[in-house]
Amino acid sequence: MNHQDILSFIEQHKEQWLEELNDLLRIPSISADPKYKDDVKRAAEKVKELLLQAGVDKAEVCPTAGHPVVYAEKTINPDAPTVIVYGHYDVQPADPLELWHSPPFEPVIKKTDIHPQGAIFARGACDDKGQTMMHINALQLMNQLNTLKCNVKFMIEGEEEVGSAHLADWIRENKHRLKGDVILISDTSILANDTPSIDVGLRGLAYMEVEVTGPNRDLHSGVYGGAVANPINILCKMIASCHDENNHITIPGFYDDVVELTEEERKELNKAPFNEEAYKKDLGIKEVWGEKGYTVLERTGIRPTLDVNGIWGGYIGEGAKTVLPSKAYAKISMRLVPNQSSDKIARLFQNYFESIAPACVQVKVTAHHGGEPVVVSTKSEGFLAASKAMEKTFGKKPIPTRGGGSIPIVALFKKELGLDSILMGFGLDTDALHSPNEHYGLFNFFKGIETIPFFYEYYYELKKGGK
Ligand code: BES
Ligand code: MN
Ligand code: MN
Questions:
Q1: Taking a C-beta distance cutoff of 8 angstroms, is the pair 210, 330 a contact?
Q2: Ligand 2 center–CA 343 separation, angstroms
Q3: Residues 6 or more apart from 343 whose CB is under 8 A from it?
Q4: Does residue 438 carry a pLDDT above 70?
Q5: What pLDDT score does 464 carry?
Q6: What is the pTM for the complete model shown?
Q7: Which of 84, 230, 301, 383 has CA atoms 20 to 30 A from the CA of 402?
Q8: Closest CA to 467 of 164, 109, 151
Q9: pLDDT in tens, 261-308
Q10: How many CA atoms lie within 13 Å of 136's alpha carbon, on the beta-carbon side?
Q11: Does 161 sit in the ligand 1 pocket, CB within 6 Å?
Q12: What whole-number distance in Å separates Cα of residue 127 and Cα of residue 446?
């Protein structure tokens, strides 16, 4: 496979590929909001169309009880290894809209300090439409340059951002079609554009909602205030008591199953370049925060967390209203690390939250979606192929890192299909995923398209005879 041919092909197709990505980015495929159901479907149809155009043998929009899964196949040789590409075409809600400098579903290219060659600004640009499209474009490239030696299956879902609830069922029902050797995913970050890395871990998730009820109706805060518990005050106190003075989580049993890394492993993990000053400056914070005794890389990579994602109740309209509210609510998520179990942690949280509620309020705790943490071996053919491919195109060996985010379906791929996932992402943590002004660097987009063909090449070589 000739590197120069790949670069020339990319050069010739840049405009076309950006236009196609923009078409996909214009569709507001927000999976969380039922208002956008038809748009989500439209995005699935668009992905199918782009897959067919790139040269797959067949592609389908498969309905599920939720949003559809787009499935496609390209068979080269039944005896060749099969790579299953996973990605998602759904996106997070775009709000708060007023903080976007350009509308979230009208992609524009702008230069930034980190992306001097320009970046596409739109919801989903990086997470994960841009990164998914790299795989579709790379397939077109390999097809037309006649370099593809592996079979490829695509599984692009529409519910990743809401917990992949129906993809699990779909996988179980479609096991017969999902025979393959490895799963390849671009939905994570590299450390920097001149510092390639591959995530070898993802955190799990337990996502809870709590409702605290005080009096049976909203009250005059003067007439009753002082004698009746305010559920917002109580909820704040309960949330505050989830961490101790060392920012350690206080839920009994919370850390029981946490795998502690050896000193050696921690040293290795902290070798990854990390500039705390730049980190603070980028976020506009004076100081970092977190569990005592751990570095920032450890706090986001190998330690579990508990965070409030949203909290509401009482009066939040214009001006002031003196009210002692009846109810207070919060959405609370916990990021989990090996070997914590999402169900067990959800149970421990519920027990704890109920146990610390004073008798003056009632507490209702419900669990939303969850997901299990994963670790990826650095010894597998898949990891080695990804590492070699990145080394080839970045000119540097990628550093194995632990990603702080979650892709809950990855643990399920292992459980249901027995397959490892390779997290060869090309985004940057600073690309504002889930935030206003999400963007994806053009450098990253094209570097991904350049790297993917080498993954297939090296994976085929490493697998030869060993299939
Ligand atoms: N692509 C992200 C996960 C990610 C981002 C991993 C960066 C590592 C580095 C994914 O789309 C995501 O946002 N996942 C959710 C999962 C949840 C909605 C079940 C997350 O992590 O919050
Ligand atoms: Mn994603
Ligand atoms: Mn996401």
A1: yes
A2: 22
A3: 206, 370
A4: yes
A5: 84
A6: 0.94
A7: 84
A8: 151
A9: 999 999 999 999 999 999 999 999 999 999 999 999 999 999 999 999
A10: 31
A11: yes
A12: 16
- Give the CA-trace dihedral at 375, 379, 382, 386, to 10 degrees: 90
One-letter amino acid at 358 equals P
Length of the chain equals: 467
Topology at the third CATH level for domain 3-202+373-463: Aminopeptidase (3.40.630)
Q: Is the CB of 403 under 6 A from ligand 1?
A: yes
The residues of the chain that CATH labels 3.40.630.10 are: 3-202+373-463
Closest atom, ligand 1, to C-alpha of 162: 18
Per-residue pLDDT tens for 4-30? 999 999 999 999 999 999 999 999 999
- 196, 100 Cβ separation under 8 angstroms: no
**Would you list the DSSP string of 331-395?**
EEEEEE-TT--HHHHHHHHHHHHHHH--TTSEEEEEEEEEE--EE--SSSHHHHHHHHHHHHHHS
Whole-angstrom Cα distance, residue 346 to residue 39? 33
Measured CA to CA, the distance from residue 204 to residue 181 in angstroms comes to: 24
Distance 148 CA to ligand 2 centre (A): 26
Ligand 1 atom 7, closest CA: 188
**Pair of tokens at residue 258:** 């946490």
Residue 405 has a CB neighbour count (10 Å cut-off) of 18
Q: Are 184 and 134 in contact (CB under 8 A)?
A: no
